[in-house]
Amino acid sequence: MKKVIILALGLFAASATYAQSPIRLGVKAGVNLPNIIKDDGNNDFKTKVNTGFNAGVTLDINLIKGLSFTPELLYSTKGYKAETMFGDFTQTTSFIDIPILASINLGGSGLNLVVGPQVSFLLSTKNKYENGFGSAEQEIIEDKSDRFKKSLVGGLIGFRYDLNEQFDIHGRYALDFQKNNEDGSRETPEFKNQVFSVGVGIKF
After folding, report:
1. Dist CA 56 CA 53 (whole Å)
2. Kind of pairing, strands 87-105 and 111-131?
3. How far apart are CA 143 and CA 198, in angstroms?
4. Phi, psi of 150 (to 5 degrees)
């Protein structure tokens, strides 16, 4: 976790140091609609969305007219739900996401295309089983486990609409390019996270 904080602070400090145009700090929050893309292995089960959330801070660094550099630091919950022979299964994963984005204004309006890579750091995994006899929960703290990759590289694309100079609404899609592990099983299947999200932002 300390490495995550150091990396994020370094990114934001470097952005502030080298940018020659005005920098605006912001906050954002939104609803996540995450699911998974199953990979090879024992993945003969169907999944559905496990609704979560994201929240964090942003920088808006104007490079030239119509183009901005907009890195973010977000806490984000992901995961999926599945129906299994043992009952309903829900997996909720907690991440620190660092999207490194370009914002491209479209036609001089309030509409912007946002696109760029994203690095995600896994913090914890919570598994919940429910059936007619009751429920059971398991939490895996990733600093103490080697079941899943601790960091994943992905990409993000979406749109942001600036309502005015302070407020925006946005929607986006993020996909991990790497699998969560290399040797999948029924207990720890191979998959890639994908997340649709919508939210609001405030700039100061």
Report:
1. 11
2. antiparallel
3. 30
4. -80, -25
Q: For tokens 């207990």, what's the residue?
A: 187
| 8-state DSSP, 180 | S
For 94-115, give the DSSP string: EEEEEEEEEEEE-TTSSEEEEE
Q: What share of the chain is helix, strand, coil (3-state, %, to 5)?
A: 10, 65, 25
Write the pLDDT tens digit of every residue in 41-99.
556 678 999 999 999 999 999 999 999 999 999 999 999 999 887 789 999 999 999 99
- The whole-angstrom distance between residue 107's C-alpha and the CA centroid of its chain comes to 28
Q: Residue 177 and residue 39: Cα distance in Å, rounded?
A: 12
What's the rounded Cα separation, in Å, for the pair 152 and 117? 11
Q: How many Cβ atoms from other residues are within 10 Å of residue 46's Cβ? A: 11
Task: Spell out the residues 6+ positions from residue 93 whose beta carbon is closer than 8 angstroms to its own.
Answer: 77, 78, 79, 122, 124, 125, 126, 193
Q: How far apart are CA 42 and CA 47, in angstroms?
A: 14
pTM: 0.87
* Closest listed residue to residue 42, CA positions, set 149, 198, 189: 189
